[in-house]
Every structure is written in C-alpha cells, then in structure tokens.
Amino acid sequence: MLTASSTVSDLTGHNVQSKVGINRQEMRLNPASEIARLHQFGNVFWSDLNMRWIVLGQAEGLEVLRQETFCLPNYGPLVLNLAQRLDIDLSHLYGISQFIPFLHNGPRHEKTRNVITRLTAQLQPAYIEHLPKAASELLVKWSDGQPFDFSTDFADQLHVHTLARVIGLDPSDLIGLTAKLNAEELNFNNSVMEFVSVNSNIEFVFNELSRLTKSHTALRLYMEKIGKTLESYDLETDFNSQIYCLAAIFILGKDTISGALSLSLKQLLEENGDVINPKEILQGAHFPREMLRISAPVNLVEREASLPCSIGAHQIAQGDRILIVIRAINTDPSVYACPHKASESLLEHFSFGTGIHACVGRNIATQAVNATFAKLSEFRVLHQTDIPTMGKGRNTRKVESLKIRIEMSDHEN
Predict the structure, then answer these.
(1) Parallel, antiparallel, or unpaired: how do β-strands 321-325 and 52-55 relate?
(2) 64, 161, 209, 239 from 248: Cα distances, Å
(3) DSSP state of 378
(4) Which architecture, in CATH terms, is 5-412?
(5) Residue-wise DSSP of 27-64
(6) I need a labelling partner for 48 at 20 to 30 A (CA). Which of 30, 115, 228, 283 fits?
(7) Cβ distance 404 to 301 under 8 Å?
(8) Which CA distances in Å does 230 have to 62, 166, 257, 297?
(9) Domain ranges of the chain
(10) What is the pLDDT of residues 246-304, one digit of tens each?
C-alpha cells in the first residue's frame, strides 16, 4: 500500500515525516488551492491522515464511481452501535438513514434507491413546471433594490417552495422545516454530540411532517402514493416509513439545490465583479452547466472496495475506503482547457456523481439552476453587498451567507 507523506524539519534540523491528507477546512474554503497541494502526491494516493485512498484524477474517479466493485459504506450499524453505547434513542436518525439511498448497501439499498428514483421521476414534470413561478415569487419581493441574503432567502427556500406546490401545499406550511433540514448532518462523520443534535432535528422534521399529513388532504394523498411505491418494492409501508421517505426527498433535494445555487452565484460574482449586468453575463446554454462544474455542492464522495481490485496502477485491498474529490475531477487540467473558470465547453461535469450511485435528483437540481439564472437574467443590475461566508459542511459545500441587491429591468421601473 502506497503512503503519501511530506518531509518537514523540526527545531533540531532533523527531517521528520508528517501525515498527509485532505484538510477539510481548506477544502471547504479554498478548494482550488487545496486540490493543487494534494496533486503533488499524484492522481491517486493513500492518505495516512484520512486512512483512505484519495482520488483526484477524472479518469480514475470515474473508474471508481462507475464500478459496482466500489460500493457505499454501510453506516446503519454505526448509528445502532452508538445508540446502544450512549443509551440514547437514535431511532429517528436510524429510520431516515434507511431511506437515504446514499448511506447503505445490499438489497435494501437497491430497493430504497429505486423508490426515491421513481418518486423523483414522477415529481419531475410538475416540479419543472412550477420552478419558474417559485423562483419569481421568491426574487420579486426583493426587486426594489433592498439587500437580502441569496442563500437563506432564496437558495434554501426554492426546493421546498417548489415541492410544496407540486404536492398541493402552501409553501408557508413548510417554513418551520427549512432550517431543520440539513443533509450535511447525515454524512456520518460527525461527533457524538452532533449525532444527538441530528436526531433531535430529524425528530422535529418527523413530527412536523406527521402533523401536516394529518391536517392536509393533499399531503395524505401523496403519502398514499409513497406507500404504494414502497409496497411495489416489498419495503415497509407503515406511516413512519412513508414519513422517512418523504423527509429524505425534502432533505436531499433542498441541500443539493441550495448548495448548487449559492455556490454558482458566488462563482459568478468572483469571475465578474461585485456589480454585474445579468443580461450581458448570463448568456448561453453553457453558463449554468459550467457554474455547476466549477461549483460542485459535494466536495467528497466515499466508496468502499467490496473485493480486491485496482485503480489505475494502484492495488486496492478489500475493505479499503476511497474518497473521490468531486471538485478535483471536475477541474482536471488534463480534461478542461479552463479548469477553474466558466467557458463555452460542451464537456460533461460530474457535480452530481455518475454511475450506479449518481444523485437521483440531478435533473431537478440542474433545472433549478437553469430556472434561477433565467430569472436573474431579467434584472438590470445585480450587486454583491457583503463578503460571502461559507457553510461548515465537511463533505457538502454551500454558501452560508451571500448578501446581494437586485434591480428590475428599465422598462419595469
């Protein structure tokens, strides 16, 4: 097994070995420079610090993402063991983990993934139809030039507002859920206290969705559809399972879309300055796609080798963990002429993964970015009014705060 390490000098002048791996803080705040630092160890290397293989090259990353040999780690037992050791109730956390199609393996994983995929596909036509209206309603209230936070007032809200309309709810019914829905908390790299906090949030979401189901006919009808879909795959169809399935759709969609939108706008402003004319800048079908390529909402994707295998020239042992750096494979200089800037390239990006575990909501997330940029292009001027702050996610990326002002087109003033 190859080991990446760097040599530094201690106070006596002797060379000492320091462990090398991903600096999560730098990957969150300065991903381009962190990836450049890691590249000195090659496209694929073993990290003693992370106790995982690190994959930076696009060819090698796609090899891992598209092969069934590289599967998803089974995190379910981790929750159960933690609950037993701490003697606390983590049932809500465990329950929803069984309905998130990226956190477990085996036959159940395939079935739950198929359920979420089918439900998402059924939602998609109506979702895309409602997106422009939801985007317009969320933005038009700020069209008088009043400063607002694009991240919290728009990006965090768009998925929930759109999905509410598709199901038949008023978006105001779901305001209490938005702040509690956070996919990053479910990445299972958290501390014990964070696990307890996550369970509390999931319990709140569960109780709130249960209350809404009992008081809204539209939601009850949609829950029946979830139940029938679960039944078609021989999964549990009880009320709790339906609620967990619905919560997974809300959580995964909301955070993926929020991250994609906030990061894309941040990148747009970095490339073009604090004051831009959206009509001039947001041109071409390539623009939203390129924003997604260089502003992926997921930093890292983890896999586990189910059998002895290889990645390029590297031999991988059964049970070895692999971290694919999505931002790195999206900006591989051997593939993209302008790795870190938007161009008119028609090349594919992998911000939502690829292969057998690709994000089931990638189509609606892409449409959400398209709809947002289309709406922003109707405004005359867009100002950034404060320095953006990044979220604290380890594996997922989003902008915590992005203050802007927008002004309507001249003919509407």
Answers:
(1) parallel
(2) 25, 16, 12, 14
(3) T
(4) Orthogonal Bundle (1.10)
(5) HHH-HHHHHHHHGGG-SEEEETTTTEEEE-SHHHHHHH
(6) 30
(7) no
(8) 31, 20, 25, 29
(9) 5-412
(10) 998 888 788 889 999 999 999 889 888 999 888 888 777 678 888 899 888 888 888 99
